[in-house]
Design a protein that fits this description.
By secondary structure, the protein is α+β, with helices and mostly antiparallel strands. It has three domains: 221 residues, Bira Bifunctional Protein, Domain 2 (BirA Bifunctional Protein, domain 2); 135 residues, YbaK protein (Alpha-Beta Complex), CATH 3.90.960.10; 115 residues, Rossmann fold (3-Layer(aba) Sandwich). The protein has 15 helices and 32 strands. Strands 3, 7, 8, 9, 10, 11, 12, 21, 24 and 32 form a ten-stranded mixed sheet that branches. Helix 2 packs antiparallel against helix 6 and helix 2 packs across helix 11.
Length: 579
């Protein structure tokens, strides 16, 4: 493509509303433009990258035995009512009505649609297993879209759905997709890791997120340095400590202490002359409409996802001031487990504590020397807290690390969540009706591209991995007014086109410095510089964007050299690795 004919509006200024580097560079490199909040147009350069990623995905999905379909984005409310998600999905589901007053939504995902389609056409075990996928636009009405295409409202997604006769078959389908995802992100040249994850609003029994490592990532991931254990922060398990023997003779008498104007943890610690590790905080949650108390050592943080999953709840939120007052008899900051008439859950961090401090369910009062069993009863001990880097691996006991990452893919074992609710059944070999076992597998298209930029950039712009680069080579003549320079550049350009090399010919009448800056900004992996000085010796300069390495090659050899470099990078992506 000739640069002079391209729609490629690059810019030098950093957009004021762009918080992360991928958002900044995608705008500056002429890849995207904002239409409205959370909705972006892809310009030609950006869309070429999208299509490159889609092609990699298609090849790996097809190789894994999945078949491509295309499903409607507009979905009838009836299907979502069947699954039970019409109400529970929340405000992210954009609902609308047509002229006949029928209700619809813009699809944020397609479990209901695909399940409806399959149940109508698959009747016996002989037609299973099946795995169907699509690459299509989704819409989720994010309350605060940000980070450009990383968290937007309208976005592209590859979503796939497997249907099997039993759990063993579902496990095989899951493993095929797990392998395909590893292949996809390796081919993209990304550093990534699959981590155990919570299934969220999609539901299901088991899932993995694929995280691209990036300091700017919204999500935290936990991984063991000794074994293969990895999980996102919501899912990461805290090992139950070995319970120590507690003797009742060590219990001190319960004391109610007046603590006027003492509300913060530091104020409680100083007033009572205790260590922070001697204080237990009591948090009141509303779980599916019912209040629960969760106790945790004051220097730890409650993981609400763990509480929700333990209780098998649909909704969980911290109680309001009004409900706390009604439930405990005291304002926020004075809740405690003694004489409270709601279920009490205790985190492992409290399991060996004795004579600890809690709120007294009375304004300006705290209890000292509180003990489990004597002073209050509990519903359960369990892992309810956020893991820290001071904890050990729950699998092998090794040291763990916490790193930032960007979720680009997610695979779920759905089980029968949707097939049971929507009556997706088949007849087994004995003629008995059975429920299909499902899996669900998604990749964020624009998000993966943005994650690739977050991981591959420098102070000059994007540094594309070869597999995702919109073009592989840019030919830059230093001076367009020198005929032999332009003739050589033109011949190289035509030769590369003939050989199927994706190439830009920067034929603009601009200073060489401007061209070099644009080439660095848009991140083309290889740059051929045609200048009078080197051309006099029969050479051209080849620069590698990633390393900054410059080499001279004879004019007659450079096309072959470029072909070899592209082939090597695409077949064995440099930097594409499982961490």
């Amino acid at each position: 493509m000739r640069y002079s004919e391209m729609f490629l509006p690059t810019g030098r200024e950093v957009p004021s509303d762009a918080e992360v580097i991928s958002h900044q560079l995608m705008i500056r490199a002429g890849m995207i433009r904002k239409l409205t909040s959370g909705i972006y147009s892809y310009l030609p350069m950006g869309y070429r990258v999208i299509r490159k990623l889609e092609q990699i995905i298609r090849e790996e999905m097809n190789k894994a035995g999945a078949q491509e379909v295309h499903l409607p984005m507009v979905q009838p409310a009836e299907l979502w009512q069947e699954s039970g998600r019409w109400v529970h999905y929340g405000k992210e589901l954009l609902r609308l009505r047509d002229r006949h007053d029928h209700e619809y939504c813009l699809g944020p995902t397609h479990e209901e649609v695909i399940t409806s389609m399959v149940r109508n056409d698959i009747k016996t075990y002989r037609q299973l297993p099946r795995n169907l996928y699509q690459i299509q636009t989704k819409f989720r009405d994010e309350v605060r879209p940000r980070f450009g295409v990383m968290r937007c409202r309208e976005f592209g997604m590859k979503d796939a759905y497997s249907f099997d006769v039993d759990e063993a078959g579902a496990e095989k389908s899951y493993e095929k997709m797990f392998t395909a995802y590893n292949n996809i992100f390796r081919r993209c040249g990304l550093k990534f890791r699959p981590v155990e994850a919570d299934s969220g609003s999609i539901g299901g029994k088991y899932s993995h997120e694929f995280m691209v490592m990036a300091a700017s990532g919204e999500d935290a991931m936990v991984f063991c340095e000794k074994c293969s254990y990895a999980a996102n922060l919501e899912k990461a398990e805290v090992e139950c400590p070995e319970k120590k023997i507690i003797y009742e003779d060590d219990w001190l008498p319960l004391e109610e202490i007046h603590t006027p104007n003492v509300r913060t943890i530091e104020e409680v610690r100083a007033f009572l002359n205790v260590y922070p590790q001697d204080i237990v905080k009591t948090l009141i949650f509303i779980v599916d409409g019912k209040p629960y108390a969760v106790l945790i050592r004051v220097d730890q943080e409650v993981n609400e996802i763990k509480v929700k999953n333990y209780l098998g709840a649909t909704e969980l939120e911290l109680a309001s001031d009004e409900i706390i007052m009604k439930t405990t008899g005291a304002p926020r900051g004075f809740a405690g487990p003694v004489n409270i008439n709601i279920p009490v859950l205790i985190d492992y961090s409290v399991i060996d504590m004795i004579n600890f401090v809690t709120g007294a369910n009375k304004e300006d009062y705290h209890f000292k020397n509180v003990n489990i069993g004597r002073d209050f009863k509990i519903e359960a001990f369990a892992d309810f807290r956020v893991i820290t880097d001071q904890d050990k691996c729950p699998r092998c006991g090794g040291d763990i690390k916490i790193a930032r990452g960007i979720e680009v893919g997610h695979v779920f074992k759905l089980g029968t969540k949707y097939s049971k609710a929507m009556k997706a059944v088949y007849l087994d070999k004995d003629g008995q009706e059975k429920i299909m076992i499902m899996g669900c597998y998604g990749i964020g298209i624009g998000r993966t591209v943005a994650a690739g930029i977050e991981q591959n950039h420098d102070e000059n712009g994007i540094v594309w991995p070869m597999a995702l680069a919109p073009y592989h080579v840019i030919i830059t003549p230093v001076n367009v007014n020198e005929k032999d320079v332009m003739d050589t550049a033109e011949n190289l350009y035509n030769s590369m086109l003939t050989k199927g090399i994706e190439v830009i010919f920067d034929d603009r009448d601009e200073r060489a410095g401007v061209k070099f800056k644009d080439a660095d900004l848009i991140g083309i992996p290889l740059r051929i510089i045609v200048g009078q000085k080197n051309l006099a010796q029969g050479n051209v300069e080849l620069k590698i964007r990633k390393t900054g390495e410059n080499s001279l090659y004879p004019l007659q050899d450079v096309v072959q050299q470029v072909q070899q470099m592209i082939s090597q990078e695409v077949d064995s992506p440099a930097g594409g690795s499982l961490l």
